[in-house]
Amino acid sequence: MLKKEDNEKLCRTDAGTPMGEVFRRYWIPALLTEEVPEKDCPPVKVKLLGEELVAFRDSDGKVAILDAYCPHRRAHLFWGRNEECGLRCVYHGWKFDKDGKCVDMPNEPEESRFKHKVQLTAYPTWEKSGIVWAYMGPKEEQPEPPDYEWLRAPETHFQVSKTYEGCNWLQGLEGGIDTSHSSFAHNNNIQDKSSMRSRATNPKLEVDKTDYGFKYVGIRDLKEDGNYIRAYQFIMPAQQMRGQMMKWHDGSREEYPTIRGHIWVPIDDESVWVWNFKYTSEPSIPLDPEFSMQQEILFGRGPDDMLPGYRLVRNPSNDFLIDRELQRTKTFTGITGINTQDYALQETMEKPFPDRTKERLGTADLAIIAARQMLLEAARDVEAGRQPKGVDPESYRHARACDQFLQKGVDWREGLKEDMYAKY
């Protein structure tokens, strides 16, 4: 269980809150490149860490992220004109460049110097792998841009998407780093008793803390077949990576072995952007587009599964289209889409976030416990003026995930040493 004050501290991410200040020490995904696809395209609304923002790509191709409200009369800049390297408010014509400087004030006298006194909040951006990243923290604390292995994979080997989830960010993260639930919530063939996750529903968890977060494994004892080990990485403050080199049902090698993961970026205290990425684990194997699309559909993110705004067709308003006959005869949940199954469980927890003082955690929850410890430690570090773990890209640039069979008695730290070291 978690103390009430610690639960509040972990869940709330507005400016000035402990966890909000932690997130503001890292570069975080803000929007997809496809949302601002070309110079002078329409601006888009963005909300991150409780802040209402607006993004636009200027005439030089640079992406800007600004406070959403004009400092004149607080009109929303989403309505603005994106033109000639700036965003012009349509209420009175005030114009702001990518750095938030007011460069034109046409409703004031021509000789007025007033525009030079007006500054809009602007956040630094960095664009890589189809993602526009933002840094929302103190200028003097700004780290180098991220250097995850998946950001170094070529476009032919990599795929990224995002989905809206209507719950607190910590629910999403804790669901992602929970290992044993895949034997239940994601059992899509309850008749198959031979799959690896059905043969061993209680994986043994081991967690090793690092200078960027922690690495952990779920060890499933498959008796005479040895141990099936899935090795994960948790990179501060909200990223999980996992191996998908083997097929879930029989342990055979995937034709396109991948490493996959998520980053959970708080929108506000009751909603989160879930960033989904996958890349091939072998530099010699490009990611087949057809396979990638099949996987998106399998996970509930196919074209027919999405509404505008990266929201799911299956959602709380229609009970995630649960099929009780499917649940009785075929799948454990009766809900279609692997990640959709997660969302159904997480979005329908208590609002604005679960009362974790009532939880009863077991050995299957070691990774969740470790994540909470590290996040609270990060909050203490930031409050004390120290740099939290995982800010320096050098600390995690070699980290990768995997899954593999190991003989009984072989320690995963040695047996998977090469598999958990970046190849890109």
List the helices and strands and how they pair.
Elements: H1 4-11, H2 18-23, E1 27-32, E2 44-48, E3 51-57, E4 63-67, E5 81-82, E6 87-88, E7 95-96, E8 102-104, E9 122-123, E10 125-128, E11 131-135, H3 149-152, E12 158-165, H4 169-176, H5 196-199, E13 204-209, E14 213-221, E15 227-235, E16 239-246, E17 253-268, E18 271-280, H6 289-298, E19 306-307, E20 311-312, H7 324-329, H8 338-347, H9 366-383, E21 402-406, H10 412-415
Describe this structure in words.
The chain is an alpha+beta fold and 424 residues long. It has 2 domains: 27-141, Rieske [2Fe-2S] iron-sulphur domain (Rieske Iron-sulfur Protein); 149-416, Naphthalene 1,2-dioxygenase Alpha Subunit, Chain A, domain 1 (Alpha-Beta Complex). The chain contains 10 helices and 21 strands. It has helices at 4-11, 18-23, 149-152, 169-176, 196-199, 289-298, 324-329, 338-347, 366-383, 412-415; strands spanning 27-32, 44-48, 51-57, 63-67, 81-82, 87-88, 95-96, 102-104, 122-123, 125-128, 131-135, 158-165, 204-209, 213-221, 227-235, 239-246, 253-268, 271-280, 306-307, 311-312, 402-406. Strands 12, 13, 14, 15, 16, 17, 18 and 21 form an 8-stranded antiparallel sheet that branches. Strands 2-3-4-9 form a 4-stranded antiparallel sheet, with no helix packed on it. The protein has a 4-stranded antiparallel sheet with strand order 5-6-7-8, with no helix packed on it. A hairpin with a 6-residue loop joins strand 16 (239-246) and strand 17 (253-268). Helix 4 packs across helix 8. It starts with a helix and ends in a 9-residue tail after the last helix. The relative contact order is 0.16. The mean pLDDT is 97.
